[in-house]
Design brief:
The chain is an all-beta fold. It has one domain: Immunoglobulin-like. Helix content is 0%, strand content 44%. The protein has no helices and 9 strands. Strands 1, 3, 4, 7, 8 and 9 form a 6-stranded mixed beta sheet that branches.
């Protein structure tokens, strides 16, 4: 499996993509789970190649996701933590969550 960031930060209401790329052969199957439960693909939550796309992201999407790639030769899991920041309504808000930005979820 190729390098995947262990943490992704996205803003509530925007498109967020959790990457999962494998160079395995034969080509692997990708599955995503959160808290031990498979993530269901919906009109808002899609899978593009191995990547999980949340559009739009919600505060309750925050958490640890696990991408599993597998083929007949084996499997590999990679964890990605998604941080979703809230919509800023204060002049102190920045792109990254901070103590001064109280509207966030991790």
């Amino acid at each position: 499996m190729k390098e995947t960031p262990s943490r992704v930060v996205g803003r509530q209401g925007s498109r967020v993509e959790l990457p999962c790329v494998s160079s395995a052969f034969p080509l692997p199957t990708y599955t995503w789970s959160r808290a031990g439960v498979l993530v269901n693909v919906t009109s808002r939550v899609t899978q593009v190649a191995g990547n999980l796309v949340l559009n739009p992201a919600r505060l309750d999407d925050a958490g640890v996701y696990v991408c599993r790639t597998w083929n007949q030769l084996g499997s590999r899991d990679v964890s990605v933590t998604l941080v979703v920041t809230g919509l800023c309504c204060f002049s102190c808000c920045k792109d990254e969550p901070s103590e001064r930005n109280p509207i966030r979820a991790i």
